[in-house]
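Re: [ENG-882] Designed sequences occasionally contain unexpected residues at chain ends

Forwarding the minimal case from QA. Structure tokens:
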């Protein structure tokens, strides 16, 4: 299981995605965006899953990162 961070353009989008992930049995929680990353709304979702779950993200997802065991962020998806 991998750890991921998803950032969003809006706080509402982060909330919608958190609900969608948890309704699908994925452990997810909202948190402030780490300083290394930027986000339009300042809210991200931290979640654990086998894959990035991109299809479950709200349309306003900004970035999806995989978190390495060394706490490095690997960009997997970018929505400009």
């Amino acid at each position: 299981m991998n750890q991921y961070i998803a950032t969003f353009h809006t706080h509402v989008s982060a909330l919608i995605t958190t609900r969608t992930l948890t309704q699908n049995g994925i452990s997810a929680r909202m948190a402030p965006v780490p300083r290394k990353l930027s986000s339009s709304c300042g809210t991200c979702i931290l979640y654990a899953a086998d894959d990035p779950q991109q299809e479950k993200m709200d349309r306003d997802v900004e970035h999806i990162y995989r978190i390495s065991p060394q706490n490095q962020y690997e960009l997997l998806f970018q929505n400009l």
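QA comment: On inspection the terminal residues look reasonable. Residues 2-78 form a domain with the Alpha-Beta Plaits fold (CATH 3.30.70). Proposing we downgrade this to a documentation issue.
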